[in-house]
Design goal:
Layout lengths: L5 E10 L2 E5 L4 E5 L12 E8 L5 E4 L10 E9 L3 E5 L6 E4 L12 E8 L5 E4 L17 E10 L3 E6 L3 E6 L12 E9 L5 E4 L4 H18 L3 E2 L7 H8 L3 H13 L3 E4 L4 E4 L6
Parallel strand pairs: 13-15
Antiparallel strand pairs: 1-2, 1-4, 2-3, 4-5, 6-7, 6-9, 7-8, 9-10, 11-12, 11-14, 12-13, 14-15, 16-18, 17-18
Helix pairs in contact: 1-3
Length: 280
Amino acid sequence: MRLGEKQILTVVKKVDFGVYLGSDEERVLLPKRQVPDGIEPGDPIEVFLYKDSSDRMIATTREPKITLGKLAVLEVIDTGRIGAFLDWGLEKDLLLPFKEQTAKVEKGDRCLVSLYIDKSGRLCATMKVYPLLRLDSPYKKNDTVKGTVYEINRELGIFVAVDDMFSALIPRREAYAKVRIGQQVEARVAAVKADGKLDLSLRERIPEQMDADAQKIMERIAEGGGMLPFTDKADPERIREEFGMSKAAFKRGVGRLLKQGKIKIDGQKGKILQSDTKQV
């Protein structure tokens, strides 16, 4: 009998409260409310094995949202003193211990997890899914992909599971947008590494992104009454905080607007003005 997996077992005995599955040497209970009508000893049935609230192995015909060694995005339905509890489609909630969280999760969050058996022989979830992600994605440079954020590292960037199965990273230099653990993101493949891992970008290729950045800058100028209180010489961190883009991208967007005659720069006052806006 394999804990955490779906398997076909044989009915060996019927009792008032259900049926026992397995063999004379090893058996597990399938509760009465889940026993199909007309089932008899000797009949095969597919079940999933886990442990109940009394730590006894039990069978279920319900479909779990995750099985041993697999990945799935599950919702946090509660938190407690030992960790968070996830909805995995069964009566007993799945524990996500604090030590297995890559970031603290709250009720209502969604997170990508794997199922494992802990030292006590219980099924638990872990957000440390990096070793399980595949390196054989079908994607190539400039493809658009979708994935789940499962870890954020200030030094390296944002770790993403593309299609919830392939290993990918949004490098720190590309991590301008604010994202959270469990968030679904759409990104562009910036590079496919030799080992198969993907480097992603939340930004389009430069020509397309330049137009989008220029539009964003113009919208911010309009919101400011025709003025932006700093120029492309501003500190990179201020630009990142204000626009979610690099200084280089900001300079390209400003350059595009200057070339189109939509803005002008007041270097003395450190402002960017709409071309038809009087200096103040």
